[in-house]
Every structure is written in structure tokens, then in C-alpha cells.
Design brief:
Elements: E1 4-8, H1 13-29, E2 32-39, E3 44-49, E4 52-57, H2 58-73, E5 80-86, H3 89-100, E6 104-108, H4 114-119, H5 122-129, E7 133-137
Parallel strand pairs: 1-2, 1-6, 2-5, 6-7
Antiparallel strand pairs: 3-4
């Protein structure tokens, strides 16, 4: 298996910018790209309007979002996979990087300024605890 780059996404524009950067890095390195999102448990429910019923879950929505982003990035790099994993974003990214023996984790710099910097951010936590290199994309 070749090198693997893990990128975290959450559906925001800043995360999409980080994912685009990760895809370009993967293409340049000849690495596989793993698009990952974290979700909070598997809460869900049923929405009923008249006789119509729709089921929803955080896991299903997270999987759809990562698959959509993977499809979007698929034109940039050839080997791409995605996963939605329950847990806190920083724990999920670090866990996926450890599990896959990733070469690099790519995250955006969202919430690394102001109060978010004092309280901590995903990028800050990942940078201090990752088992591999971390690339923090300037998205703001």
C-alpha cells in the first residue's frame, strides 16, 4: 500500500478548501486520499408528514457528505476513499491516521484565532497529538 493522506471535513467551505489542498497534495505525492468526518453518535429519527415518512441519522448524513466531497475531489486524485466515524473530530482524525499508518493529516485553520485558539481547536489538538506530519491549510 502506498502513502495515505487523511483530511478532515465537516461540510463547511473552509473544510472543503482544506480537502481541495489535500487532494492536490495527494496527486503530487502519488498518495491515496482518505476523506473523513466525525459525527456525534448515531442520533436519528423519523419525520412524518401525512402518510409520508422519512428516516434520518447523523451517520447517514455524514456518510453522504463525505461521499459527495470524495466525488468532487475525485477529478483531482485517483485513489480516494471516505469514512464517517463517530467521535470528536480530533480523535477521529488521529485514530484514522494511526489505523491507516497515514503519512499526513490535512486540516483547516478554522477556530485557530481569537477565543477558539484559547479554548482549543481541532487543528491545534491534531498538530500536538498526531502520529504523522500535519498540514494546516490557511482557510481564513
Amino acid at each position: 500500500m502506498g502513502e495515505i493522506i487523511v483530511v478532515g471535513v465537516d461540510g463547511s467551505e473552509t473544510a472543503l478548501e482544506a480537502a481541495r489542498t489535500a487532494a492536490r497534495l495527494a496527486a503530487g505525492m502519488g498518495a491515496s486520499l482518505r476523506v473523513v468526518t466525525a459525527y456525534d453518535g448515531d442520533t436519528g429519527g423519523v419525520v412524518a408528514i401525512g402518510s409520508d415518512r422519512w428516516m434520518f441519522s447523523d451517520a447517514a448524513q455524514a456518510e453522504i457528505m463525505t461521499a459527495d466531497i470524495a466525488r468532487l475531489l475525485g477529478t483531482t486524485t485517483s485513489e480516494i476513499s471516505c469514512a464517517a466515524v463517530p467521535g470528536k473530530p480530533q480523535d477521529v482524525l488521529i485514530g484514522e491516521a494511526e489505523r491507516l499508518n497515514a503519512k499526513l493529516i490535512v486540516v483547516g485553520n478554522r477556530r485557530m484565532q481569537g477565543l477558539g485558539r484559547v479554548l482549543g481547536s481541532v487543528a491545534n489538538t491534531v498538530a500536538h497529538n498526531a502520529p504523522c506530519d500535519v498540514y494546516i491549510v490557511k482557510t481564513t
